């Protein structure tokens, strides 16, 4: 019974994990749109990217983005980072042993980039500890800019949320993030690393 209750609690948390992304109030909001097919194709051809999340504290989190596996979602994250959309935004939600969530221009889970993207799923990518994935509402095609990083294996999220990369280094910093901690910058660059993706189970 205890296990069932714990699982029920986790499932009930999912709508909170992905609050509606309908408004954008960030000062100097950049003009971005949903990724085009050309952008997605370019990301797929490149393959991997390295996202560097530098916290306001100076700590750095490096995330490998699997563009060959999730080209549309990675193209979306890349264009937001390239436009400096994430710079100065905070992590508005921290659930111990579950996730940290950020990327909302409103800073409270209610904001978005002004558009929504279609849900992209790769059945081989799993929400293992250190996975980065897109937050959304209880409707599938409602993600935009909010993302979360898992603090533990969360298999009940598989096939429901767009996991598109994994923490390469700085997981200790991810685990220390508090509500309100800000991202000074987020950059995305092509990455030639050939290490196996720890999320893939084929």
Secondary-structure blueprint of this entry?
Elements: H1 2-17, H2 37-46, E1 48-55, E2 60-66, H3 71-82, E3 91-95, E4 99-102, E5 131-134, E6 147-150, E7 163-169, H4 171-174, E8 183-190
Antiparallel strand pairs: 1-2, 1-8, 2-7, 3-4, 4-6, 5-6, 5-7
Helix pairs in contact: 2-3
Structural class: alpha+beta
**Rg calc:** 16 Å
CATH architecture: Beta Barrel
Percent in strands: 15-25%
- The residue fraction in helices comes out at 10-25%
- The CATH homologous superfamily corresponds to Cyclophilin-like
In spatial order, strands of the major sheet run 3-4-6-5-7-2-1-8
Output mean pLDDT. Answer: 89
Global morphology: globular
Give the oligomeric state.
single chain
- Count of distinct strands: 8
Distance between the termini: 32 Å
How many independent structural domains?
A: 1
